[in-house]
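Hey,
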Amino acid sequence: MVTPMSAASHEQPDHDAATVSTGEVVWIDELDETVCWRLLARTVVGRVGFIDEGAPCVLPVNYRVAGDAIVFRTGSETTLHGLGRSARVAFEIDAADIKAETGWSILVRGHLSEVVDAGERDRLSAAAVHPWAPGVRDHWMRITPSKVTGRSISRRRSRVDGSLLPYMPPD
């Protein structure tokens, strides 16, 4: 679904946004799940959100897509390993162009569990997940998604004839 928004409001959809005096149109697109998985597969750092001692917490991880799941390595004494079996989590990645005020974001909601099968751990070891944090990261964790969503924001300028061109910010 594509929702055009006037550059002046950024809040209320404006179906005549191409006629805004600045000529700028802001589009918010809901991304198809296939596109979300493709973007997930192209990135190596994401953030895991969860509840820790009754409060929200978000930690970065180095990860990979493995089939229809997100996998990462952690240590036995870490908060993520200690969450327990089937903890509810959120996983997020994004990219932004600050100058152009454009970008995208992917959100995966699901359950976290440890990979305990030795054969599966061996296969995952070949996935080349390289943790940036120091220390032993000998436990594989899996996020099994229940919902995968994504959004992108882009800008376009309208031409005199009403057609749209990609927006390029001034230098």
